[in-house]
Design brief:
Glycosyltransferase; about 60% helix; globular; 14 helices; mainly alpha
């Protein structure tokens, strides 16, 4: 009996223990499953919140970018005097950051050098933006001149031979009758008085005009070679006559050589050296050329000497001429214009000649850090002051003068600046005759 009750009690105890264990395990299992579900739901909620935050941040970035661009557009027109102060502050901040990272061992000289470096980088960016704006003004000015020619000088008369070069340089097809209606009988008929030994300027004038309409000046009017005839007129001392004729004779013959045309005796290096020597002897003590209108003759001479840099004495002569031009420009530091000195006022003609000479030497006149910038004004801006609202150029701002000469020479100068190459030298590179 006692054994039976003992067995019953043992069974009851085992059942009780198993029940309690099951309950305890159950209480421990359900929280685990519930936690997994909660974590999944929390992860999902978090992903949704992150997604919403990403979208919000993306929208914020778009708005910030838009605001930044709007601020840049506004600042571009309002920068003005604030630029230098902002540039300096930014430079100081960058230098301070670098100094903090590197420690405090930087010297005052190193700090100043770093600041100058950052300011130069910032200035370079500003220069690029300014060049874009000035470039648009240049294109507009050229367009206005060409339109003026079409409406008022279609085509220019033979006396305005420089206009032919200018219009060619502007990309005009002077053989297109739909644009340029004026008869050009001179191309088909030998001009009166143009003998082979004619000592005037006609060989030079017609030589450049023929090139501008893309005709060969060494085979014209029944087989005449204007370049060989011109070369034969050189005197024993190397001269082609007066300074102006000498300069342009050399220029035309040099272009003929570049085009690989028959230039007669000019192909002889000794003959060319005599011409260069004669020209160098014409340089004045102050570095200029010419007995009057020194700016014009100096600019033209630089054009011609740019083809003869390897000749003895040319480099020194060019340096002296550039020093003279710098002094002429610095007489009035408030403008980039060149002073004509005692002989003449500030004028478009003389300045155009100088611009062409400088470009022929390789000077970058669009660069706002060029030595030819005065008081923030580049030479292009100085030249455009002489342009009339109708498109032509005046001799001076107050006196129209001979607008045909001023306009043709100014258009050539504008094209020189645009292409970074003297227009007639570009002609020598682009034309081709079989």
């Amino acid at each position: 009996m006692n054994n039976k009750w003992l067995k019953v009690c043992l069974i009851i105890s085992v059942v009780f223990i198993v029940s309690v264990t099951a309950v305890m395990v159950g209480d421990d299992l359900f929280p685990v499953v519930e936690t997994d579900v909660q974590e999944d739901e929390a992860t999902k909620d978090q992903d949704e919140r992150i997604g919403s935050q990403d979208k919000a941040q993306e929208a914020k970035k778009v708005q910030e970018t838009k605001t930044t661009l709007e601020k840049k557009d506004t600042n571009a027109s309002e920068a003005g005097n604030d630029f230098e102060e902002e540039k300096s502050n930014n430079a100081e901040e960058k230098v301070a950051e670098e100094k903090k990272e590197a420690g405090s061992d930087s010297t005052e000289e190193e700090t100043t050098a770093k600041k100058n470096e950052y300011e130069q980088e910032t200035a370079g960016e500003a220069d690029k933006n300014n060049e874009i704006s000035v470039g648009a003004d240049l294109e507009k000015a050229i367009h206005k001149v060409v339109n003026w020619y079409r409406e008022n000088r279609n085509l220019p008369e033979q006396e305005w031979w420089e206009a032919y070069t200018a219009l060619w340089g502007a990309g005009e097809d002077l053989n297109n009758p739909d644009k340029w209606q004026t008869a050009q009988d001179w191309r088909d008929q030998l001009p009166d008085g143009l003998d082979p030994d004619h000592a005037g300027n006609e060989h030079i004038r017609y030589g450049f005009m023929l090139l501008s309409v893309e005709e060969d000046p060494t085979n014209v009017w029944g087989g005449r070679n204007l370049l060989a005839e011109l070369a034969a007129q050189q005197e024993g001392n190397g001269s082609f006559g007066q300074l102006g004729r000498h300069i342009w004779a050399m220029e035309l013959l040099n272009i003929g050589m570049e085009l690989e045309l028959d230039v007669g005796s000019w192909s002889d290096q000794g003959v060319r050296q005599k011409a260069v020597n004669w020209l160098l002897n014409e340089q004045n003590e102050n570095g200029s050329f010419g007995r009057f209108s020194e700016l014009d003759f100096t600019g033209w001479t630089l054009i011609t000497l740019s083809y003869s840099k390897n000749h003895e004495g040319v480099s020194e002569a060019i340096d002296d001429a550039l020093s003279y031009l710098e002094k002429r420009q610095q007489e009035d530091p408030g403008t980039a214009d060149f002073s004509g000195g005692d002989w003449t006022d500030y004028n478009a003609n003389s300045q155009a000649a100088v611009i062409s000479g400088l470009v022929a030497l390789g000077e970058d006149l669009m660069c706002t850090s060029s030595r030819w910038v005065q008081n923030g004004e580049i030479l292009l801006e100085a030249q455009l002051k002489y342009q009339h609202e109708d498109g032509f150029f005046q001799w001076t701002i107050d006196k129209p003068g001979d607008i045909d000469i001023a306009t043709s020479q100014s258009l050539i100068a504008l094209l020189d600046i645009k292409h970074g190459e003297y227009t007639r030298h570009r002609m020598a590179r682009e034309l081709c005759f079989d």
